[in-house]
Write a structure and sequence with these properties.
By secondary structure, this protein is of the alpha+beta class. The protein has a single domain, classed as Preprotein translocase SecY subunit (Orthogonal Bundle). 70% of the residues lie in helices and 6% in strands. Strands 1, 4, 5 and 6 form a 4-stranded mixed beta sheet that branches.
């Protein structure tokens, strides 16, 4: 491993990208400690301790402790993710957005601009809801209520906008996906504290040593399953016909079309969590009986919450796969270059075959993601373990780490370095 890090230092471009990414994540972690003006930090900490296992615990997990401190990054990157979901859904039903999505780079830039504007709007709405709720709690705010609400809205929206810019900079100039890495950094930063809390529970006798050992075994097992499935592929054989160009013969080789078991990666649980958090955050502070009942029903750990969460994960697994992978385009490109799947006619039949395989594969991936996200969380809740040991956080951490490692390794392979694994390149398994 030490030799692998030395190899990074030998590649100037990769070294600059890794250093830039680490510095940007450090800026994010420093910002988590900058409080929003007008809040009583001690009183907020006492209030948060009462709701740590509820909706606030979910938000705090994704923001890396920013919600507990009510820092300028208290909303985290979730408004941006919510805006991205809304824009992607509207792309399917709004003709103007659908045309933009097909206009190449110019269209994508326009949709990105709409996403940024929507992010600011959602951040202002969420900031207003949270700040109004804090004003209603005695002793939390030491400035006039309307002044605090306005100041908190602007501050939290500005913090989200900065994180959005930070994530885009990491994606463009660093290594890995910037938005995912920000969430990754927040979760990882909270894990040592969660582990310390669990050890403290063992010392006080609130949790048995065997229970702690069982939780650790569950964590290791979940990580092993995640790594195993994330590397899994369904390889569709592809044969290219020979082509004669002048006096040379091209083609004729056999290859394969790799389809990942979990094509959507960590996007479905992030999107699902974001959608559950947004309405529940607003409803948490509205003094309407029906809204209060719905919020209580959707509280983390309840049966309805887990059911809705699984349904959203399955939906986004299929939705994100459909957005990022088009079987018709793949079939047309194969036909254009003389490729075909043995036993399947080129063109429409090939697209239908790929779509059928992808649909079945996505179902398996959706079941896998749902089980990983829900079962460990339920077990952790039964054993009174910190919420940070949930399967959602483990899936995000391991998935983002694997994706980032793969990108680093790709840079190394392009320059004849083996990367982080001495045996060679990370290879996908046959599904």
């Amino acid at each position: 491993m030490i030799g692998s890090f030395q190899n990074i230092a030998k590649i100037p471009e990769l070294k600059r990208r890794v250093i830039f990414t680490l510095l940007m994540l450090l800026v994010y972690r420093v910002g988590v400690r900058v409080p929003t003006p007008g809040i009583n930090a001690e009183a907020l900490k006492d209030l948060f301790a009462q709701y740590a296992q509820t909706l606030f615990g979910v938000i705090d997990m994704f923001t890396g402790g920013a919600m507990e401190n009510f820092s300028v990054f208290a909303l985290g990157i979730m408004p941006y993710i919510s805006a991205s979901i809304i824009l992607q859904l509207l792309t399917v039903v709004v003709p103007h957005l659908e045309r933009l999505s097909k206009e190449g780079e110019a269209g994508r830039k326009k949709i990105t601009q709409y996403t940024r504007y929507s992010t600011i709007g959602l951040a202002l709405i969420q900031g207003m809801g949270i700040s109004i709720g804090l004003v209603k709690s005695p002793g939390l705010v030491y400035m006039p209520p309307m002044q605090f609400v306005f100041l908190a809205m602007i501050t939290l929206a500005a913090g989200t906008a900065f994180l959005m810019w930070l994530g885009e900079q990491i994606t463009e100039r660093g290594i890995g996906n910037g938005i995912s890495l920000i969430i990754f950094a927040g979760i990882v930063a909270r894990m040592p504290e969660a582990l310390g809390s669990t050890i403290q529970l063992v010392k006080t006798g609130d949790m048995g040593f065997l229970v702690l050992l069982l939780l650790m075994v569950i964590m290791v097992g979940v990580i092993a399953v995640i790594v195993f499935v994330e590397r899994g592929q369904r390889r569709i054989p592809v044969q290219y016909a020979k082509r004669v160009v002048g006096r040379r013969i091209y083609g004729g080789q056999s290859t394969h079309l790799p389809l990942k078991v979990n094509t959507a990666g960590v996007i479905p649980p992030i999107f699902a969590s974001s959608l559950i958090i947004f309405p529940a955050t607003i409803g948490q502070f509205l003094d309407v009986p029906v809204v209060k009942q719905i919020t209580d029903l959707l509280r983390p750990g309840t049966g309805l919450h887990e059911l809705v969460y699984v349904a959203l994960i399955v939906f986004f697994c299929y939705f994100y796969t459909a957005v990022t992978f088009n079987p018709v385009d793949v079939a047309d490109n194969m036909k254009k270059y003389g490729g075909y799947i043995p036993g399947i006619r080129p063109g429409k039949k090939t697209a239908e075959y790929i779509d059928r395989v992808l649909t079945r594969l996505t179902f398996g991936g959706a079941v896998y993601v749902s089980l990983v996200c829900v079962l460990p969380t339920i077990l952790a809740a039964k054993f009174n373990a910190p919420f940070y040991f949930g399967g959602t956080s483990l899936l995000i951490v391991v998935g983002v780490a694997l994706d980032t490692l793969t990108q680093i390794e790709t840079h190394m392979i392009q320059r004849h370095y083996e990367g982080f694994i001495r045996t060679g390149r990370i290879k996908g398994r046959r599904g």
